[in-house]
Task: inverse folding
């Protein structure tokens, strides 16, 4: 496990999510919940890249790769949520948040910027764990198949 790899791939996740969010924001589709589901693909790409590079470098431990993938996704999540916090403040704070959160899972009610970003962080942690476990099962089965062929 190389922390530099997790940082680089976490930054790739962050850049991918930032570009995707800015594109849907520019197109006026930021309030469409179903488009936010595609964030999963960006996060999965970054985690998969880390695990793939680890296996390429001979890191075969399940737990090591699991932690490596989780660290990668959390770096991307923390950078993304932190940047979104600044973006919300830049765009008008609570007023912009009220438009942004209408189509969100926990939108509605008296939501402020702090609650919104903390909620996003919890959601990021949950999705990071799930995506990392799914990809680890994929790689575990792939490595087992390769070892049976050898």
Result:
């Amino acid at each position: 496990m190389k922390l530099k790899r997790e940082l680089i791939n976490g930054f790739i996740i962050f850049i991918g999510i930032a570009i995707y969010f800015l594109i849907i924001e520019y197109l006026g589709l930021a309030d469409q919940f179903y488009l936010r589901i595609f964030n999963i693909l960006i996060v999965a790409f970054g985690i998969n890249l880390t695990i793939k590079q680890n296996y390429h470098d001979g890191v075969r431990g399940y737990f090591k790769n699991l932690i490596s993938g989780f660290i990668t996704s959390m770096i991307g999540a923390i950078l993304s949520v932190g940047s979104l916090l600044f973006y919300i403040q830049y765009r008008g704070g609570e007023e912009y948040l009220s438009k942004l959160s209408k189509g969100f899972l926990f939108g509605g009610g008296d939501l402020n910027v702090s609650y919104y970003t903390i909620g996003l962080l919890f959601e990021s942690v949950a999705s990071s764990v799930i995506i990392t476990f799914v990809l680890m099962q994929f790689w575990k089965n792939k490595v087992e198949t390769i070892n049976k062929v050898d």
Notes: DSSP finds six helices and no strands in the chain. The chain has one domain: 3-143. The two ends are 25 Å apart (CA to CA).
